[in-house]
């Protein structure tokens, strides 16, 4: 029979014989459990005397079934001959950890290999199976089916005993079932509920597909009040009133089992709902309640454990997908409450029941109780909508298929586990053994290695630039590893080792950091082979996407190509990760050193070798090429000074038939180059003089020339054109970007490293800076930008929250409450708010919450004036508007406009008045803007370096100068390295609004210049952007915040001429 794998584990029967269990769902919609006996657990040992050790093992360890002497290659280093290893086969998987330490101590044993591989993972890798893989199971009629089923408890519609399981190629999923749930607990007189004291009073469910004709269900833990006539049920949802909490709890577990979901989801269920239900059930059972808490497909207990701030929950046969951590990893939001996530990502509102008033709502017998029930129902609905509408699961499912992992592991783990699954498979195919994970001592030794130096970043030519072409290296770090055969299996420690290995100096490549690697003509490395396969499969998947019109198939294929990209971009970071099984600082540093040489060489080719491009007859020519072409047509290319005649080529240039484009590099960032194009005179082109199609010709030709100088498969590509770009410092810039889309172009403003994408700033900062960028980059109007900023500061000074309470949302700042208050070294504003809320309501803020706050007027330190926004509105407390103007609005705007000679005095119209100044109702600012339009800077009429200096904003000093404290700055550095890599936002600036939509996940920005950090392990996430193959220098990528609408506007550069800078 055919079914789709959801989960895998094993059970022991008889004399400790392991039986693999594959849980899944068939194409008939029925749940499946496939039993596969006969797979043996094993590991390897290296010994100086294999035969003697083999004898010792069999004599001393009854858990061992047999020991085989096998030939294998070691895990690291170029080797020409195999060595003997001992393959130790044991009875049960648990025997491996039982005996491995004692085996390691035997005389002659020098090392153990693969002794910490999970038995489940070993089976999946060896059988080439993975989560969500479709398989065909061939039934084994020789097995005693009834005996197996009797010994192995299973709750599945179909049970099959198989002798073989074969992967089959199928894209569409089985008819899967999703269940979302949410619990409400009765607070203890306003305090946070505890399972020991606080009953569960409401449980809501959302089903996909509908269950018994209903999409939602709410259980109420008390009888329906007399006279209650409020509608809490409809055609899509039921409300069921129960006698008491005991019945409510029993029905909750019963309902989950009856629906039989493949995915159990909710918002923060891992950290709250599931552990609370289990602990509360234990409390009630001790009092005599009959509650069966088993939810697994074999009735085994739910596994739930907290590791720091991460919670791991496993239910055998099902997949637990908590939406909160998934949203955190995939979307950068100011707050991660369900209310905020639903509003920003779905455009839906969470219903409101104040936590402090839940008792009041519960004990009501009318409208408030009805609102409470609907509130609970909405929470379950929103959670399942977030999961399914945003398609958060798709890439994790695809990763499981590709890496021979179960989906639960890709959801809970990082990319390290997936890389190692693939490496284990390929090492097995190449007869190599895998090392065990490093112990504490080995990790400390690795962690003490020299810091990894990141990729090169060319200093930006600061200021405003027009007509900047963006060239991007396609999958830079993976292609470097492929091109230069960088691998654990090709590395050589010392040049003195060449002769014993039968090699000469011509057979190896020495990288800029001294790494020595055997060339591909001698042997192709395992890692380059894996990367080549991943890249090939990704390209094939993209082609398939273009060949189908089936929407579901396109979505599945898109998730697959994204998963392939994530894995492709994980290998570099893995090489330098100190906790990896396979660690090589020589590989990691070689990759970045080659990358640094590459970006420097690219700049040299563009500026010194190419220099300028001739555009003629819709082609891009080098100078020598166009001269040869003119000569072949009998035309002159050199002027005749004696006769005073100009050449035909010069005449063509003068007449506009030939256009000369001067090239210069104004910025380079690891895997991308910003190339400025100007006229031969040095003047800027107008849009009519240099069209987007012209830019594409120049960019494509330049990229082709550079690519020709590179070893395959390294490739430089034309990516986009920035009509205007403001470069401030390394990794800090803004662009009005045009990208090719079919026969036309899409345009957007792209920002990197500025306040629009940092959560240290309020929404008003992002909104203001976004509009300023629109005015400067798109309209070229600095004066209007200044007027706009003045209008914002004026609105703030005249703010009346009673008349405009919604405005407070634009002023809210957030900070992560990551540990107990006592563990913070310094006083911080969000801690002030946490303490205030606790003192007023008795409610403690959960660790991991992003705490919202605003700054209010009054005396005292800044941190002491942080306040809960709801409390501010309720008590009409005035906001410290000067703080927001001076610290939140003006500094980031000034960093942009400073290149135009605009200082803080120009931006803030308001000036301090004396007693005799109040007669002047509209005083002029003391400092007027130096620049009237961007054309002054673009045409070099103004020297940006001569602009008045406010803050020292051009120094690349790390975290931006917001109201950030020492611990926050450290956290932000960590965030920048652990996933928030691109720091960019994209917006359709022609129609700005405040809505936020899900962001395309097709880019991983590079962060390889962060030389102070080494790769670290974090959960899987995606960065946001538009370039197709950017690479991150660690085994993780995470999203950046999206400000405004994501949809791009279509532009035809020919049909819709843009204004020249000189038109403003």
UniProtKB/TrEMBL annotation:
Q: Where is the composition biased (Polar residues)?
A: 985-1010
Catalytic activity, per the record?
Answer: DNA(n) + a 2'-deoxyribonucleoside 5'-triphosphate = DNA(n+1) + diphosphate
Q: Which UniProt keywords apply?
A: DNA replication, DNA-binding, DNA-directed DNA polymerase, Nucleotidyltransferase, Transferase
Q: What class of enzyme is it?
A: transferase
* MF (Gene Ontology): DNA binding; DNA-directed DNA polymerase activity; nucleotide binding
GO biological process, alphabetically ordered: DNA-templated DNA replication
EC number in record = 2.7.7.7
- Disordered: annotated segments: 941-960, 985-1064
Q: Entry's InterPro entries? A: DNA-dir_DNA_pol_B, DNA-dir_DNA_pol_B_CS, DNA-dir_DNA_pol_B_exonuc, DNA-dir_DNA_pol_B_multi_dom, DNA/RNA_pol_sf, DNA_pol_B_thumb, DNA_pol_palm_dom_sf, DNA_pol_type-B
What Pfam families does its record include?
DNA_pol_B, DNA_pol_B_exo1
Q: Where is the DNA-directed DNA polymerase family B exonuclease domain?
A: 112-339
Query: Where is each DNA-directed DNA polymerase family B multifunctional domain found?
Result: 408-898
Identify its protein family: Belongs to the DNA polymerase type-B family.
Q: Which PANTHER family match?
A: DNA POLYMERASE CATALYTIC SUBUNIT, DNA POLYMERASE DELTA CATALYTIC SUBUNIT
Tell me the protein's name. DNA polymerase
Organism whose genome encodes this protein: Methanimicrococcus stummii
Q: Lineage of the source organism?
A: Archaea, Methanobacteriati, Methanobacteriota, Stenosarchaea group, Methanomicrobia
């Amino acid at each position: 029979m055919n079914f789709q794998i959801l989960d895998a584990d094993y059970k022991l029967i008889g004399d400790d014989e392991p039986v693999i269990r594959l849980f899944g769902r068939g194409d008939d919609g029925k749940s499946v459990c496939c039993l596969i006996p006969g797979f043996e657990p094993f590991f390897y040992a290296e010994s100086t005397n294999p035969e003697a050790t083999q004898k010792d093992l069999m004599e001393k360890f009854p858990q061992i079934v047999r020991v085989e002497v096998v030939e294998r290659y070691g895990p690291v280093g170029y080797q020409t001959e195999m060595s003997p290893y001992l393959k130790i086969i044991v009875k049960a998987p648990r025997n491996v950890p039982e005996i491995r330490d004692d085996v390691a101590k035997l005389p002659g044993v020098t090392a153990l290999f693969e002794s910490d591989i999970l038995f489940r993972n070993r089976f999946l890798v060896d059988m080439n199976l993975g989560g969500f893989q479709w398989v065909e199971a061939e039934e084994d009629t020789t097995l005693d089916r009834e005996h197996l089923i009797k010994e192995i408890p299973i709750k599945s519609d179909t049970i099959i005993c198989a002798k073989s399981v074969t992967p089959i190629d199928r894209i569409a999923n089985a008819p899967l079932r999703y269940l979302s749930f949410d619990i409400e607990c009765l607070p203890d007189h306003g305090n946070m509920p505890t399972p020991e004291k606080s009953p569960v009073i409401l449980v809501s469910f959302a089903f996909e597909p509908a269950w018994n004709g209903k999409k939602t269900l709410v259980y109420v833990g008390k009888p329906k009040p007399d006279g209650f006539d409020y509608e809490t049920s409809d055609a899509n949802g039921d409300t069921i009133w129960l006698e008491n909490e005991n019945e409510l709890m029993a029905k909750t577990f019963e309902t989950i089992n009856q629906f039989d979901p493949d995915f159990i989801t909710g918002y923060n269920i891992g950290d709250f709902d599931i552990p609370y239900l289990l602990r509360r059930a234990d409390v009630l059972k001790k009092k005599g309640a009959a509650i069966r808490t088993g939810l697994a497909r074999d009735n085994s207990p739910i596994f739930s454990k907290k590791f720091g701030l991460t919670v791991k929950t496993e239910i055998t046969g099902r997949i637990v997908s908590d939406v909160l951590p998934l949203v955190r990893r995939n979307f950068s939001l100011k707050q991660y409450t369900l209310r905020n996530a639903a509003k920003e990502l779905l455009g839906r509102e969470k219903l409101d029941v104040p936590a402090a008033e839940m008792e009041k709502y519960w004990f009501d017998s009318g409208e408030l109780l009805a609102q409470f029930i609907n509130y609970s129902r909405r929470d379950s609905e929103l959670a399942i909508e977030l999961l399914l509408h945003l398609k958060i699961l798709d890439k994790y499912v695809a990763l499981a298929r590709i890496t021979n992992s179960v989906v639960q592991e890709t959801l809970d783990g990082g990319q390290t586990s997936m890389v190692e699954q693939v490496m284990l498979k390929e090492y097995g195919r190449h007869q190599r053994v895998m090392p065990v994970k490093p112990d504490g001592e080995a990790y400390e030794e690795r962690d003490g290695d020299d810091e990894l130096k990141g990729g090169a970043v060319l200093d930006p030519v600061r200021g405003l630039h027009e007509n900047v072409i963006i060239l991007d290296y396609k999958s830079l770090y993976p292609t470097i590893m492929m091109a230069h055969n960088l691998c654990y299996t090709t590395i050589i420690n010392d040049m003195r080792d060449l002769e014993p290995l039968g090699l000469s100096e011509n057979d190896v490549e020495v990288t800029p950091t001294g790494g020595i690697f055997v060339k591909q003509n001698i042997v192709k490395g395992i890692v380059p082979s894996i990367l080549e396969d991943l890249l090939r499969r990704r390209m094939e998947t993209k082609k398939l996407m273009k060949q189908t019109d089936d929407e579901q198939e396109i979505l599945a294929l898109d998730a697959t190509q994204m998963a392939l990209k994530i894995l492709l971009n994980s290998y570099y970071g893995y090489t330098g990760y100190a906790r990896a099984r396979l660690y090589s600082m020589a590989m990691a540093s070689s990759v970045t050193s080659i990358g640094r040489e590459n970006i420097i060489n690219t700049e040299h080719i563009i500026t010194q070798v190419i220099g300028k491009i001739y555009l003629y007859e819709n082609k891009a020519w080098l100078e020598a090429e166009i001269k040869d072409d003119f000569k072949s047509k009998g035309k002159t290319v050199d002027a005749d000074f004696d006769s005073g005649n100009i050449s035909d080529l010069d005449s063509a240039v003068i007449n506009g038939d030939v256009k000369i484009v001067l090239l210069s590099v104004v910025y380079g960032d690891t895997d991308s180059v910003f190339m400025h194009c100007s006229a031969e005179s040095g003047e800027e082109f107008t849009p009519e003089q240099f069209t987007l199609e012209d830019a594409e010709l120049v960019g494509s030709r330049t990229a082709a020339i550079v690519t020709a100088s590179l070893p395959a498969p390294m490739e430089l590509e034309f990516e986009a054109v920035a009509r205007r770009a403001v470069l401030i410092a390394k990794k800090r810039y803004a662009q009005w970007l045009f990208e090719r889309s079919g026969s036309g172009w899409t345009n957007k403003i792209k920002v990197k490293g500025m306040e629009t994408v940092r959560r240290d700033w309020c929404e008003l900062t992002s909104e203001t800076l976004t509009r300023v960028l629109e005015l400067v980059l798109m309209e070229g109007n600095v004066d209007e930008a200044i007027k706009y900023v003045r209008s914002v500061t004026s609105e703030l000074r005249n703010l009346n929250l009673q008349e405009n309470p919604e405005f407070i949302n634009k002023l809210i700042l957030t900070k992560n409450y990551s540990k107990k208050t006592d563990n913070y070294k310094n006083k911080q504003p969000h801690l002030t708010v946490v303490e205030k809320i606790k003192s007023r309501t008795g409610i403690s803020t959960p660790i991991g919450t992003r705490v919202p706050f605003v700054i209010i007027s009054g005396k005292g330190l800044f941190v002491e004036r942080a306040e809960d926004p709801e409390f501010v509105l309720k008590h009409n407390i005035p906001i410290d508007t000067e703080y927001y103007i001076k610290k939140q609005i003006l500094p980031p705007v000034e960093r942009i406009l400073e290149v135009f000679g605009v200082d803080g005095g120009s931006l803030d119209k308001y000036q301090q008045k004396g007693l005799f100044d109040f007669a002047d109702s509209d005083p002029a600012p003391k400092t007027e803007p130096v620049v009237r339009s961007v054309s002054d800077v673009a045409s070099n009429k103004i020297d940006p370096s001569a602009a008045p200096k406010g803050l020292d904003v051009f120094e690349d000093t790390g975290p931006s100068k917001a109201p950030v404290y020492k611990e926050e700055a450290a956290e932000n550095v960590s965030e920048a390295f652990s996933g928030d890599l691109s720091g960019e936002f994209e917006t359709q600036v022609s129609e700005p609004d405040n809505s936020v939509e899900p962001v395309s996940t097709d880019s991983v920005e590079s962060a390889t210049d962060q030389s102070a950090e080494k790769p670290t392990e974090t959960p899987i996430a995606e960065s946001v952007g538009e370039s197709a193959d950017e690479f991150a220098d660690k085994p993780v990528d995470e999203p950046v915040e999206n400000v405004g609408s994501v949809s791009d506007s279509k532009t035809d550069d020919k049909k819709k001429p843009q204004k020249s800078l000189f038109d403003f």
